[in-house]
Amino acid sequence: MAEFGYGSLTIESVASRAQTGKASIYRRWPSKQELVMDALGCLMTGPLLRLHQSELSDDVTTREALAELMVNVGTVMAGPDGDAMRSVLGESLRDEAFSASFECDFFDPRKRALVDLLERGVERGEVRADAVDEVVAEMIAGTFIHRVLIRRKYPTRAEIDNMLDRFIMPAISPSSGA
């Protein structure tokens, strides 16, 4: 998918590359869409695992967790996996059913993980309670994803710190007022 795009991806090409038969692929993934969604889930699981409260040690602040997430996602998007993601995103704009699946199976769980991180921040006194909702999570992720996925601008750690310190943390921290 990274090489040729979603539209050129076929079950036959996947089977050939995996050195197996198409039937083996279809036994696990009944459709190309399901195969792609599963692959994307695997692709983006690593950087997001650390968002789960059970995965974060007590000494990791909300800001540190967000910074690590942004660094990890930026690294993934800078490589061939980013090309695959851009291809899938393009397809989701053309195909309404695929878009619904992409949102439900890919974006929604990651948005929920980000909301969970913000809720953890509330418990720790680092985030205002009224700053925890899906819209805020989408705004945090959206700006960063637009930059790395659409514009292919991969921020340095200093730029990530700047985003966090000038915009994200002031918008969600208790000191910014309710």
TrEMBL record:
PROSITE patterns: HTH_TETR_2 (PS50977). The keyword DNA-binding applies. The keyword Hydrolase does not apply. Keywords: DNA-binding, Transcription, Transcription regulation. InterPro entries: Homeodomain-like_sf, HTH-type_TetR-like_transc_reg, HTH_TetR, Tet_transcr_reg_TetR-rel_C_sf, TetR_C. Pfam families: TetR_C_11, TetR_N. Residues 10-29 bind DNA. Residues 1-47 form the HTH tetR-type domain. It comes from the Bacteria. This is TetR/AcrR family transcriptional regulator. It comes from Jatrophihabitans telluris.
